[in-house]
Amino acid sequence: MSKICNNCGQDLPDSAAVCSLCGEAQQQKPSPTSKKKLIIFVSVIVAVVVVCILIGVLVNIGGKNALVGKWNYDMNTSEGPPLLLSDSIEFAPNGTLRYNQGYGFYDAGKWSVSGSKLYFDAGDGYEGSLEYKVRGNTLTLTGSYELVYIKDK
Question: Is 74 in the same domain as 147?
Fold first, then answer.
């Protein structure tokens, strides 16, 4: 296949960088491989941006908001007694920690998080911190032993 000079119209071979008749420099058509490289480059950039956005969304979903709600103690997978010796605990959005002894939920104090630490203060000298991890509908609290809770629906 041949190309035509941009200046004088002379037929030129595809590989010509300069017109053999008038000496005008010719624009090179991008090769198919350079187009593929550009497509791959743009695709990688888009993928990196999407991953960064997803990480940002997941970080915002985690933290304190991941704990908010009612959680039921899983005696089958836990290694020790439940937090506040309660079958169910609730982390209220306002920072109130509540527990259920089978007769309804009662205020037990305050809770907060920092990084992967859950801090609680029951107000009666019962206070402390535990490592926490939320995966799906499972909450794992780790201190001297591991406690597992399942999110109440």
Answer: yes
Residue pLDDT, tens place only, 60-91: 445 567 889 999 999 888 887 887 778 888 99
- Tell me how far apart the alpha carbons of residues 72 and 147 are, in angstroms, rounded to a whole number: 11
Please indicate, yes or no, whether residues 69 and 133 belong to a single structural domain of this protein.
yes
Intervals of the chain under pLDDT 50: 59-61
For residue 35, the model assigns a pLDDT of: 77
Whether residue 71 sits in one domain with residue 24: no
- Report the 3 state secondary structure along 83-136: HHHCCEEEECCCCEEEEECCCCEEEEEEEEEECCEEEEECCCCCEEEEEEEEEC
| Residue 152 near residue 70, CB atoms below 8 Å | yes
For the beta carbon of residue 91, count every other beta carbon within 10 angstroms. Answer: 24
Residue 120 lies in a domain: yes
Domain that holds residue 15: 1-32
